[in-house]
């Protein structure tokens, strides 16, 4: 209860209190959670729109909290960024994902014509400015024995807005080594299309907002024109286009017609355990 002057008492918003406590509780529990191994990774397939084959997966981290159950990254990644824990946590995700991609490769079985299953890993802006990014990544790839070409790092568009050369240097070095860089959540920020040429990216990931706009069928023709324009610009700059949030077959058909290269979304599969990705890849190779 909050003292509201005189002899009146008002209840503080109990939900806000719960959120505040939880937020604080979660923040203090984060470093311990990493030590105790409470994080795990789910993988969501990336599907080639042309032939429907599984080409790889995006790694998405989750926290299995002993009291609160599975906590979504939307809740704890911002806290980890705020406290700096994102650097060791992000490194852990990268290492696990790279080892997983190597395990998929060793287990083979995916369509040999499509090449080994690749893995996409999200990088937070704090990791971009951390001086160990390039050396850590090289070391992790070497230790696992994974080719740099099997790794794609996803960086949000907003993290690179107004990026100067110092910020781009590590990404450029990774790109030169053969690591793919994807511009994530494309279209949500102030996209400076001309700026794209400057960035060492090889993939554009169209934000879910675009596919959400296509939920009504037939979709708004203006939305379709915008996607078509982005795809043609991306292709003219030699960038591949991945769309996220594909939930229906009609969306997939339309996005294929618009020239998108790769899709990700519940229509194909929800994020899941690594073995399931391998099964999906095997199933479509037969
Ligand atoms: P994101 O990078 O944009 O990842 C895509 C999100 O969309 C994922 O949410 C995924 O589960 C969800 N999604 C996939 N397909 C569909 C669909 O068809 N419909 C709908 N409605 N949603 C779909 P998730 O797993 O909750 O992750 C949320 C965000 O947390 C990610 O957004 C990413 O920004 C961040 N994140 C996750 N893992 C990591 C990580 O290891 N490091 C960092 N820095 N951020 C991460
Ligand atoms: Ca992502
Ligand atoms: Ca995204
Ligand atoms: Ca998104």
Automatic annotation (TrEMBL):
Source taxon at top rank: Bacteria
All copies of domain EAL, residue ranges: 23-285
Protein name: EAL domain-containing protein
Source organism per UniProt: Streptomyces flavofungini
Lineage, top ranks: Bacteria, Bacillati, Actinomycetota, Actinomycetes, Kitasatosporales
């Amino acid at each position: 209860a909050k003292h509201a002057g005189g002899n009146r008492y008002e209840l503080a918003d109990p939900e806000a209190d719960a959120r505040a406590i939880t937020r604080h509780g979660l923040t203090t529990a984060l470093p311990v959670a990493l030590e105790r191994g409470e994080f795990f990774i789910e993988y969501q397939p990336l599907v080639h729109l042309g032939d429907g084959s599984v080409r790889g997966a995006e790694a998405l981290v989750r926290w299995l909290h002993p009291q609160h159950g599975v906590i979504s990254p939307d809740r704890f990644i911002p806290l980890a960024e705020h406290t700096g824990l994102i650097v060791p946590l992000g490194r852990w995700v990268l290492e696990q994902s790279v080892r997983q991609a190597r395990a998929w490769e060793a287990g083979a079985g995916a369509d040999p014509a499509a090449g080994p299953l690749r893995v996409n890993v999200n990088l937070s802006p704090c990791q971009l400015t951390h001086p160990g990014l390039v050396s850590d990544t090289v070391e992790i790839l070497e230790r696992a024995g994974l080719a740099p070409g099997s790794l794609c790092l996803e960086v949000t568009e907003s993290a690179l807005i107004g990026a100067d050369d110092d910020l781009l240097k590590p990404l450029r070095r990774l790109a030169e080594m053969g690591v793919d860089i994807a511009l994530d959540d494309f279209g949500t920020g102030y996209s400076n299309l001309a700026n794209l040429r400057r960035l060492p990216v090889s993939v554009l990931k169209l934000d879910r907002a675009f596919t959400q706009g296509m939920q009504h069928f037939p979709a708004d023709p203006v939305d379709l024109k915008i996607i078509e324009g982005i795809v043609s610009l991306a292709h003219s700059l030699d960038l591949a286009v991945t769309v996220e949030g594909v939930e229906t077959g009609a969306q997939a058909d339309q996005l294929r017609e618009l020239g998108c290269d790769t899709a990700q979304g519940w229509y194909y599969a929800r994020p899941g355990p690594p073995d399931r990705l391998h099964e999906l890849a095997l199933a479509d190779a037969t």
